[in-house]
Amino acid sequence: MILVLDFGSQYSQLIARRIRHLGTYSEILPYSAPLKEILQKNPQGIILSGGPANVYRDDSPKIGKEIFGLNVPVLGICYGEQLIAMLFGGEVESAERGEYGPAEFLARSDDLLFRNVKQKSVVWMSHRDRVKRLPPGFKVIGRTRNAPYAALRHKEKPIYGLQFHPEVAHTEEGTKILKNFVRLICRAPKDWDLGDFIDHTIQDIRNQVGERNVLCAVSGGVDSTVMAVILHKAVGDRLKPVFVDNGLLRENESEQVMKRFSQLGIKVQLIDASEKFLQKLRGVTNPEKKRRIIGKTFIDVFLPLLGGGDFLAQGTLYPDVIETTSTRGPSATIKTHHNRVKEVVKLIREGRVVEPFKQLFKDEVREVGRRLGLSREILRRQPFPGPGLAVRILGSVTPERLKILRRADSIVIEEMKRAGLYYRLWQSFAVLLPVKSVGVMGDERTYANVVAIRAVESLDAMTADWAKLPPELLSTISTRIINEVPGVNRVVYDISSKPPATIEWE
């Protein structure tokens, strides 16, 4: 496996994901992981991620040089390169101008890292700091106009540094560069196969739970559906799936979810707790508080169904684990996930939680589902947040505002599918804003709600570009919402990318 040490980069997950796509398993640990833990992973290569800190500051995250004595190749990316340069006696400075976005990179093609890589290519930069003086024993193997040491390596040891981000899709030759590091330099085998993962996971679940029941919550989304199918294969009727209607679902979603699981041959218990959720959310406008209330209420409704000896199964993904806690590096907590509330953490400590996907990314879960025979409709369903429409209603959540958003969102989905774009986009949805605007409808002045449309293209939700939808489609959506949804007189389109924005508005 290839180990990624995280120095706080929001791209660390991308590095691991790209390497897995090459057929080699990759995992992330915080930069502060003890050497003993790193040795237990038995990595064939180590990658030092980027990060937001300045390497020359006393309080910046650092590692000891013992990492470079493990006789495994090391690749530093952005901050990782600067750290390597500093640890080996070079100098890092803050440049007069930064490099953010595309830059022309000139590579030395005679190095293994750049085997079959174009000598001139576009790379993705995101830095102001740069290596000013090369450390003794190193040589330059690539440069850009603003970064003369954009790629460097040790003259004798397999220690490399790149100022740019090969893991980002905007780096033209990034996949080749990572493949060269993994295959030619680390000599890591291509042995990460999701077919093997399914067989091993089913057996691991059986070994973990024995003859006891497994309770799991299902939402109809990709993660929980694939998890329910794999759990059902593992434990059969001892699986106890529950669907909690929190009153924050999209139009007709509850009926659709129950029908879908029935077709899969999985019997699901439905609990309608919508009134309880809406009562708890009354008057709440802070998005993080909304998430906490919804998570707590869900636990109050769902966990009492867990028997004394039962196991709890969760569709936790690798990004959930990283985003919820800083234990995997200094990256900031973006949002709270219900799968790490205190009640669940207590069950984890008791060894009663099954999380078959906690080391997988969403695209890998989709591939698992495809291999299990699930339909395209299920696997390509766009992600829907756990707190539901509560985080797409900016401000207070009321039955009236939910009714408006449900209808508007339904129109967005209908038109995206009609245009053949729904399955090509990562997400497309409506957001109800906490403002009203003046309008004219039927020769009368109106003062009504504003709906925003959000549509993004992404590979994994770590980064996202706003979708350049055809003007005719936007016009159709706007016209339908204003004509068919009472209380709305204005529709706007969100043209923000992630970063700096997030995909969801809350």
Describe this structure in words.
It is a single chain. The protein has 15 helices and 18 strands. Mean pLDDT is 91; it is low at 325-336. Helix 5 (194-209) crosses helix 6 and helix 8 (274-281) packs antiparallel against helix 9. 33% of the residues lie in helices and 24% in strands. The strands form three sheets. A nine-stranded mixed beta sheet has the order 2-1-3-4-9-8-7-5-6, sandwiched between helices. With 506 residues, the protein is α/β, with parallel strands linked by helices. The longest helix has 20 residues, at 399-418. It starts with a strand and ends in a 13-residue tail after the last strand.
Give start-end ranges of low-pLDDT stretches: 325-336
Radius of gyration: 25 Å
Gross morphology is globular
Which structural class do you get from the secondary structure elements?
alpha/beta
The total strand number stands at 18
Counting DSSP H or I runs of 4 or more residues, the number of helices is 15
Q: What is the helix content?
A: 25-40%
Main sheet, how many strands, which sense, barrel? 9 strands, mixed
Please report the distance between the alpha carbons of the first and last residues: 36 Å
- DSSP strand (E) fraction? 15-25%
In round numbers, the mean pLDDT is 91
Strand order across the largest sheet: 2-1-3-4-9-8-7-5-6
